[in-house]
Specification:
about 180 residues; alpha/beta; Protein-Tyrosine Phosphatase, Chain A; five-stranded mixed sheet; 8 helices; 5 strands; about 10% strand; disordered N terminus
């Protein structure tokens, strides 16, 4: 592609050339992550609340394959070893070239400040690379994000809203999390 700027001074050409290069760089950086493909994939309770950090229910092996092709680099599983899944998720994720993490969150009791801190540390280490954080339904993801928001200075109501934004939809779990957040 040739960029021609008729009758422009050399300094104006430099500005336009720099702007053009900046636009190309920005487009190239985002080309590696296809959010739209993931949004159309029917992953249970799919949410994109924070850039390339996604919250979902349990993805299938095929959906993990799509995630890898769409540029996801990491998968954080909040399910415990005892929760049945029809495939070895860690093996599937790693065979697709993504990095696998496990934080076993045992139901409502596992939604606590310690597990929220563990999740926050992993997300900080990932440093904005595309990641799926999931449990069976997305509720535990939302619960941990509510705890993280409270740790970051949010009020209980603000933390609850953040948890809901991340996928905490169960009224029962919302009540448990609100009670836990209020006790901290």
């Amino acid at each position: 592609m040739t960029l021609t700027i008729p009758s422009a001074s050399s300094s104006l050409r430099l500005v336009f050339s720099s702007l053009f290069a900046l636009i190309l760089t920005a487009c190239a950086g985002s080309a590696g992550f296809d959010l739209a493909a993931l949004q159309n994939s029917d992953i249970n309770n799919f949410r994109a609340p924070s850039g390339a950090t996604l919250s979902t229910g349990q993805p299938t092996a095929a959906q993990l394959g799509l995630a890898a092709r769409s540029g996801v680099k990491h998968v954080i599983n909040l399910r415990t070893a005892g929760e049945e899944v029809a495939f070895n998720e860690g093996e599937v994720v790693e065979s697709l070239g993504m990095k696998y993490y496990s934080i076993p969150v045992a139901g409502g009791a596992g939604i606590n400040a310690d597990n929220a801190s563990a999740l926050s540390r992993i997300l900080a280490d990932i440093d904005g690379e595309p990641v799926i954080v999931h449990c069976a339904t997305g509720n535990r993801v939302g619960g941990l994000m509510a705890f993280a928001a409270l740790a970051d200075g949010a009020s209980v109501d603000e933390a609850m809203a953040e948890g809901e934004r991340w996928g905490m939809t169960s009224e029962r779990l919302q009540g448990m999390v609100r009670e836990s957040l209020s006790g901290n």
